[in-house]
Amino acid sequence: MSDEEKEPRVRLGPLRLALGALSGALAGGAALAVAELVAAAVRPQAGPVIAVGGAAIDRTPALVKDWAIRRFGTDDKLVLQLGILAVLTVLALALGVLAVRFRRVGAAGVLLFGVVGAGAAVGRPDSGGVTDALPSVVGAVAGALLLHVLVGRSAAVGRPAAREPGASGRATDSGSAFRAWDRRGFVLAAASTAAASAVVGTVGRSLSGARGQNAVASRERLVLPVPGSPARPVPGRAGLRIAGISPFVTANEDFYRVDTALVVPKVDATRWRLRVHGKGVRLPVTYSFDDLLRRELIERDITLTCVSNEVGGPYVGNARWIGVRLADLLAECGVEPPSRGGPADQLVARSVDGMTIGSPLEEVMDGRDAMLALGMNGEPLPFEHGFPVRMVVPGLYGYVSACKWIEDIELTTFDAYDPYWVERGWARRAPVKTGSRIDAPRPFARPRSGTVMVAGVAWAQHRGIDRVEVRVDDGPWQEARLAAEDSRDTWRQWSLPWQATKGGHTLTVRATDRTGSVQTEKRTRTVPDGASGWHSVVVTVE
Fold first, then answer.
1. Are the beta carbons of 394 and 461 closer than 8 angstroms?
2. Which one-letter DSSP state was computed for residue 205?
3. Contact at 8 Å (CB) between 454 and 470?
4. Closest Cα to residue 368, out of 328, 315, 398, 341?
5. Could you tell me the pTM of the whole model?
6. Per-residue pLDDT, 11
7. What angle do CA 213, 215, 219 make, to 5 degrees?
8. Helical H segments across 311-415, by residue range
């Protein structure tokens, strides 16, 4: 008699499949928890979710990234991570079901995802080497073993009990005791796995957080020196007292954040170093944070704008920055701009997370207040905005100037090297376009008839705003009242009292910069060098 005749193949009923799916979910959760614990020992960025998420960001087309920023704003990273977890959950459920019939194949599938995570971690620009593969590999091995064990337990739960003749000659269910034991055994194994995963995951997150304590302590101890070149007092009339208008100075917690870091780097200022090297540098130089603190610091009010800012969008903010004048530091290293015969025309800044930002050297050294910023609005840089040091260059979009968590500056040429965003279809050079926005009234507002204050902000960094005009429906352009100018590197508030009549109306704004250039009406997307067009809002006057 064949083995199949001795032990017929068990039919896969709904219970077996459900238990298999549950086994897959539990094994997947355990794999991620173990991986997070190992990542705490290696480095948090090596965890599989972060590594795969980073790889996904790197390979996402520019238009899709731009859509995600518009749709989800600064929550785009959270949405990406939740999406990855959702996909992994579905795959874990599927592997669990597959393992009910082919247990080794299911376990091999878990190991395959470990290989994918390991490859993503090792292939990241900021990879620490082969050790970055450990979290994914160890987590996958743990998940595969657990899946094998749990599916084995679940198989016994769904197996029909054998029936043997009893003392009276009738068949009895001799397997009922075994079946009950197997059921309890599976429940115990599943519950133990879930509890252990929760504990391991919590410990991993706690240890990952503890790795940044030295960085937190270095920031808390930092007292910024008094700048040798302080900013001028903000004119009293630079900020208009109108409901709904953006404040002249954007608070740190409200300042936009657009970057690719799924885990905010926490760098210990006492261990931070900046290397300057490349074409035109006499000898490579390395600076410590204390080296920068000993230099003369400048303090300036500068408005930053993200290239992903749509017409009327929120990704623009104004802050008071404290830092080291970048042109002076480069000049001491022997660097000359191309207009003075220097061999380099591009400054490539590298972040601790592997990001590369390419800036035109001519603009960095043309006399504008380009700086290595150490402080923001009177305090050390927040971690989300680049602590301990970031670049700030007035008049350039952030993707070609505002490198956060900077650790390396290389002088090179545009022909020789394409930085991160240029590789993905964005322009090599991107001065900020003249822009304006209506803050009040809000879109689809329903103000009462009579005098309604139309107000907002306009910007043209390093050129300055000369005029703002507002149009109601298809009427003539009316010149708005400008608030006092702080500097040509900051935005300006504006307002216009509008005698509103009942009905629906469209309000449109445009600005003119100090060069006489009028903000263009032509609508363009953010890719490749920033959006353009007039901002409009529709309101209904009651």
1. yes
2. H
3. yes
4. 328
5. 0.86
6. 55
7. 115
8. 326-332, 361-364
